[in-house]
Amino acid sequence: MNRMVIYVLMIAVFFTATSELVIAGILNVLADQMQISVSLAGQLITAYSLAFAIGTPIIITLTVKYPRKKLMLMAIAVFILGNLISIVSTSFIVLMAGRMILGVSSGVFMVAAFSAAAKLVPVEKIGSAMGTIILGFSSAMILGVPLGVALTNMFNWQMIFLVLGAGGIVVLIGLTLLLPQIEGDSSVPFKQQLGVLANPVIFFALLLVLFREAGNSVMFTYIASFLSSILHRSTTEIGMMMLLLGIAGAVGARIGGSAVDKWGSAKLIMIGVMIHVVALLLLPLAIHSFPLALTLLSLWIMSMFTLGPATQTYFIERAPQSSNLIISLNISVTQVGIAAGAGVGGMVVDWNDTVLYNPLVAGIVLVLALVAAAVSIRKSRQIARV
Questions:
Q1: Which one, of 299, 370, 334, 385, lies nearest residue 214 by Cα?
Q2: Is the Cα dihedral 350, 37, 92, 242 positive or negative?
Q3: Tens-place pLDDT, residues 90-142
């Protein structure tokens, strides 16, 4: 029964993650239909991520002792509401409000799902349970984003949120029937929270996450525009390209899981971020060769997902007594980075009236991630030698 619950949680994360990622695949369509600029449409991703990053830790802190089942059911109910608002939205402001509701509800659900999963399975199975739930996120890129593009092409972009809302109802029923009652968590003293952040190893690792996600978002938010206006792909071809990139991401996640055990999290982080930087900095030079450009994009996406298991493992290894807190901080910092990157990416588009230079800016931001990773790893080794 618990295995079935884990699968339902994975499906739920698939729907919530799709609500986040799908906008990148239909950005041009949204901009055209709402008669706004592509950079302004990109702020729908910023709004989602900021609501996720700011709202999630506040609500999680206020509901820390609240039963996990009730919290997740409430989060999914609000998620359904956010999709309904998105469906009926006739203005950019209303759609942005819907995106913010989706962001908060998705964030609360994800943190609660990880907390519940840790209590549903034996200690030796926690890692695999977490991996199964995270698979819902990578599946959103492989299936959710291309499906969203296809639904937009066949019907309209509102159909995406109708499907997500319907999926939310199915998840709500499934969790109601299958999820057992799970107690909330004990409160984490504020002093302990500050203590974790005061650890330079953790602090610079969080900076790594911040700059990595910001750099990725500078590019990924406008990936559909890049494929369309720079690589001259049609809407149908963009859907296929997103599918291929999603498969590259799944391969990367698979490689990352096994490579962490073989090479260690620190080495894999450095290699992964270096591939990020090289692939993005070379991309503007490869725009006249579509196969080469697609190869670089695939390497970038693959390394992005490879870093997921490595980063999570790195945090748990360096702060095993505060793993739940670190996971929550990591999720919030991830969304702050995505929001910041979407904003910076929009400014780059406005300044140059093209998305050609977004890979360069993304690569520069990721150099900062590489520096933060190097500092964190160096300090970790210094502490280990003491």
A1: 334
A2: negative
A3: 889 999 999 999 999 998 998 888 777 767 777 666 656 666 777 787 788 77
CB 21 within 8 A of CB 332: no
Instruction: Please give the span between the terminal C-alpha atoms of the chain, in angstroms, as a whole number.
Output: 46
- Which pLDDT score, from 0 to 100, does residue 75 have? 95
Given a contact cutoff of 8 angstroms between Cβ atoms, the answer to whether 346 and 43 are in contact is: yes
Nearest to 107 by CA among 341, 331, 333: 331
Tell me, what's the pLDDT at 131?
65
Cα-to-chain-centroid distance, residue 74: 22
Which tokens is 349 given? 């588009």
| Rounded Cα–Cα distance for residues 284 and 358 (Å) | 9
Query: What is the distance, to the nearest Å, from the Cα of residue 322 to the centroid of all Cα atoms in its chain?
Result: 22
- Please tell me the distance from the alpha carbon of residue 53 to that of residue 99, in angstroms, as a whole number: 13
Structure tokens at 271: 């290699």
Q: What is the DSSP string of 68-135?
A: HHHHHHHHHHHHHHHHHHHHH--SHHHHHHHHHHHHHHHHHHHHHHHHHHHHHS-GGGHHHHHHHHHH
What is the length of the chain?
A: 386
Nearest-angstrom CA–CA distance, 336 and 333: 5
Strand, helix or coil for residue 233 = coil
Instruction: Match 């899981």 to its residue by tokens.
Output: 257
* Best CA proximity match to 141, nearest among 292, 296, 27, 253: 253
Pairwise CA distance, residues 35 & 60, whole Å: 37
Dig out the tokens for 202 from the structure: 């953790």
The conformation of residue 22, written as its DSSP 8-state character, comes to: H
Tokens at 301, concatenated: 């996406």
pLDDT at 377: 93
Tens digit of pLDDT for each residue in 22-51?
887 788 888 888 888 887 888 888 889 889
Instruction: Give the relative orientation of helices 235-263 and 145-154 as an angle to the nearest 10 degrees.
Output: 170
Q: Residue 144 corresponds to which tokens in the numbers above?
A: 């959710």
- pLDDT-derived band at 270 (thresholds 50, 70, 90) equals very high
The Cα–Cα gap between 133 and 139 comes to 10
Q: Could you give the CA distance from residue 69 to residue 207 in angstroms, rounded to a whole number?
A: 33
